[in-house]
Amino acid sequence: MSSPATTTWSIAPEPHDSPVAAALWRAYYTEVSDRWYLLHEGRRTDSDELEREVAADTGDYLAPPGGLLLVARYGGEPVGTAGLRMLDPVTAELKRVFLHERARGRGGAALLVAAAEDGARGLGAERIVLDTRNDLVEARSLYTRLGYEETEPYNQQLYAEHWFRKDLTRLTALTGPRGLTGPTGLTG
């Protein structure tokens, strides 16, 4: 990858079934599945299971009009995703937030979540919710830092152990040490 001083982020909608989206979904699922299995069973995800589970979740719920998939690119290279699906007319669910390890630590996760929040507002959402697991401590830390609050369960997902929500009616811009100019101010 290029140096952080000369490389910029871009975030744009992507069809949920594009080759880029499929490759990022596979990378996301592999990482979170391997992490769970290594923690609980001391092994990586079985390749047959990986293929079965990746194929089983087509991501159709990320397609318009009730969904959205965003792809983050760093220096033009696709390195991450954030998806949305509307649960009801005013509630969006954040899904598949992921950055390749090689792109982490450069502010992309916050940009991706901010772009997803903007996308949720564009779909009419007044609030956004998500679920995550105990072992995804970095994700929980990110959501807390970005103003998400832990809440009661809103679903019965098998691996969900923490649920978060954020009110989207209060528009806030990202600013800070990285010099971000707004929710999608894509300078790195």
The run of helices and strands is EHHEEEHEHEE
Oligomer: single chain
Compute the separation of the termini in Å.
13 Å
Q: What is the fourth-level CATH superfamily?
A: Gcn5-related N-acetyltransferase (GNAT)
Strand order of the largest sheet: 1-2-3-4-5-7-6
Beta content comes to 25-35%
Folded structure, characterized:
There is one protein chain. The protein is α+β, with helices and mostly antiparallel strands and 188 residues long. It has one domain (9-167): Aminopeptidase (3-Layer(aba) Sandwich), CATH 3.40.630. The chain has four helices and seven strands; from the N terminus they run βααβββαβαββ. Strand 2 (67-74) and strand 3 form a beta hairpin. The chain is globular, with a radius of gyration of 16 Å. The two termini are 13 Å apart.
Brief sketch in words of this structure:
This protein has 188 residues and is α+β, with helices and mostly antiparallel strands. Helix content is 30%, strand content 26%.
Provide key terms for this protein.
188 residues, 4 helices, disordered N terminus, alpha+beta, seven-stranded mixed sheet, globular, Aminopeptidase
